């Protein structure tokens, strides 16, 4: 990638890191929150918003994707980071939906990585705006196979879960 201009590459997914595939944000302003699942004092709340004013009865947080992918282009293998908008193309659902599916099906994240392995995509990659960040960002992703099926659809079939259900195997 030359300069700061985004570049488009044809690539194949080699592997996905199944650990920490999402993070929590304020449902109003989308600022990153502390990990409410690991907090003994209850869910985290945004210091900048009064989320109850925006959405009474809301928990105040939601999850967004942050996925590390190893991809192979024609000339090299490298790691990219895929945030929510691009990751929804790969997974076919929101990070909250996948998080709850994975809670009921503990190996779902690992299996999703295996489902995506070998898939070919056209990815537009950009350099991170944060100088400390290590990986290129996936700005957009387009499947190259007309038969591409988002990971959640394949997982629902494998685990025997109905399309609208979030429960475990039936």
Automatic annotation (TrEMBL):
One Pfam family it belongs to: Rep_fac-A_C
Domain Replication factor A C-terminal: 8-127
Domain of life: Eukaryota
Name assigned to this protein: Replication factor A C-terminal domain-containing protein
Organism: Tetracentron sinense (Spur-leaf)
